Amino acid sequence: MNDSLAKLSYGILLLLLVLVPQVIQDQFILHLFITIFFYIILSASLSFFNRTGQLTLAQAAFMGIGAYASTLLCMKLHLPFLMTLPLSGFVSIVIALILGKIVLRARGVYFVLITFSFTEITRLIFVNWVSLFGGANGISNIPAPRIPLLFRSGVVTVSTKGSYYYLTLVVLVLSLVVLLRITKSPMGNVFRILRESELLSQSLGVDVSKYKLIGFTIASFFAGIVGCLYAHYYRYISPHAFTFWESVYVVMICVIGGFKNLKGAVIGSAVFVFLTEAVRAGKEYQLIIFGVVIIVTVIFCPGGLEGLFTRVGNRITGLRKLTALNPES
Amino acid sequence: MQIIFMVPQILINGLFLSLLYILMALGFNMIFGIMGVVNFAHGEFYMLGAFIVYQMVKLMNFNYLVGLSIAVVMVGALGMLLEPVIFKRVRKIEAGDFVVSLALAFILQSIALMIWGPEDLGIPSVYTGIMRMGSLVIPVERLMTIAYSTALLIGFYLFVKFTRTGQSMRAVAQDAEVASLQGIRVEKVYVLSFGIGCALAGVAGALISPIFSIFPYMGGFALLKAFIVVVIGGLGSIPGAVLGGILLGMGESFISTFLGGAVSDIMSFIGVLILLIFKPEGLLRAK
Questions:
Q1: What is the distance between the alpha carbons of residues B157 and B166, in angstroms, rounded to a whole number?
Q2: Chain B positions in Cβ-Cβ contact with residue A264 (cut-off 8 Å)
Q3: Is B235 close to A290, i.e. CB distance below 8 A?
Q4: Would you say B57 and B70 are in contact if contact means Cβ atoms under 8 Å apart?
């Protein structure tokens, strides 16, 4: 798709998304959108880290870390939301740096197993350190975010689904913009070479382990941010929300959506959430239908659904390309 | 001191667990070693092995050994069917095997749930009685399980070491490209290996069916143990799986006797993490 057309369509998409809560009042649908937004941030950052050739099952752990961090900072230290949000990200970064330094030397499946163990251990800590984290019962009565207004004095309490939709959308757009910026920066170039060939990158003098650490840290930062949003949305957190299954779903989303670019994360998240809801109609057959759809999607769209969407998009704009005589597609 | 007298008992219990864990891990390890595939649905093949025996023995009145054989063959056949249909096609896809086997696990669990329901089921012990040797107490059932597992493992070892098929499997595990240059039909080896790997899981399930309870989510237990064994012993290494199984089984037996079952679970996890960080290839290097 040519560039300005792409920008136009993203603009339209954003406009539509902004209009959604004005048009749709159904709380459940708004909830679905918010869930999709959460997953997009989680999977986009995972996809970014994946450029270093690794997969992490630790996104759920960092989500939990961010959630508990924001909750504790907010409820014990009375810090405002606008401070706890980035702080959740930074707490995740610190832990990711420490963890990454130790474990990123592992490769492939071993690294996946390590991040899996880390997620399990983090969860066990949340469950067993009852005085700090509330144990299996978690922490409830988490306050809604109170955000000072820009143009007028006063504070908005983001307690309705509609307002939380906008909050999450803003964070989502900011996150995607940041990720895109990084991708287009010189550092992003390094990540692109890394994906192609780690060996080649090393021969070119790239300090692979440094970039793996950077990628891992970035993924954990965004996971932490999602954790914070999660905590103040549900107003209740418990270790059950941060199991390795969440990490697995994020990987699944990247596989069905595509690792290649951010579009994959968007499409994958939307498809995943809608699919999960759609199969409820099947009752006992739910998981069977879900599993079959996943398998079929992976087999027939090897690069992910985003490849499919791009091809369809190209078909639709095919006529334009012919008439524009554009040398690059 | 009383402890000295407990040791043989702990060893026997540990032996039982070790052999079980080795069987659970062997198939998983094989599939990874030969094909590089992490089969998340491994536990489900174990589960199906147990359920098929249940179906044959409890509901259709077959003899236990006959039921066991049928279960193994059916589970192995299922594996051989799924490899070319599903796993072969996702070989080149990033994390494809991971996601696909996970989806498969959901599907198999749901099917089992629908056919047999969520309740714990069981089949009566095949061998009754308890054997006593001095202060040692072993239910005959467990003794027979130990015997069968050992026979199976020896048979498997002989198969891999001395038959042409076994050798071609080892060749493919070492280097698939070179193996195909040697005239080995790599695709056929993949299908067979996957089938045998699943069959091994099925056999483990079939063997424990008279001892442990049978329910659709029992696969998670087997998968977890397989992971741990494989991490300890090394992914892709068969002697490693044996070593790993022994260490895990004996370790659990000792720790749970003296410190309780919960501690033993946590210890395994911590041990796994430490190993992964410092010796990810496992205690025995693969190949």
A1: 9
A2: none
A3: no
A4: no
How far is the alpha carbon of A235 from chain B, nearest alpha carbon, in Å? 30
* pLDDT confidence band for B103 (50 / 70 / 90): very high
Q: Give the pairing of strands A139-140 and A146-148.
A: unpaired
Q: Are A93 and A213 in contact (CB under 8 A)?
A: no
| Beta-carbon contacts of residue A42 (< 8 Å; ≥ 6 apart) | A59, A63, A222, A223, A226, A250, A253
* Alpha carbon distance B276, A139 (integer Å): 32
Residue type, B28: F
Is any Cβ of chain A less than 8 angstroms from the Cβ of B130?
Answer: no
* Digit-coded pLDDT (tens) for A76-119: 998 988 899 999 999 999 999 999 988 888 777 788 888 888 89
Of B98, B110, B276, the CB nearest to A117: B276
Q: Which two tokens stand for residue B184?
A: 């080995």
Question: Which of A121, A254, A287 is opposite residue B110, by nearest beta carbon?
Answer: A287
The CA distance from A129 to B36, in Å, is 38
Max CA distance (Å), chain A: 68
- Of the candidates A112, A288, A298, the beta carbon closest to that of B96 is on A298
What is the DSSP annotation of A226-257? HHHHHHHHHSEE-GGGGSHHHHHHHHHHHHHH
Q: Per residue in B171-186, pLDDT tens?
A: 888 888 888 888 888 8
Give the SS3 label for residue B228: helix
3-state secondary structure of B210: coil
DSSP class per residue in A64-84: HHHHHHHHHHHHHS---HHHH
CA B256-B258-B260 angle, to 5 degrees, is: 40
pTM of the model: 0.84
Q: Are B244 and B233 in contact (CB under 8 A)?
A: yes
**Residue length, chain B?**
287
ipTM of the complex: 0.83
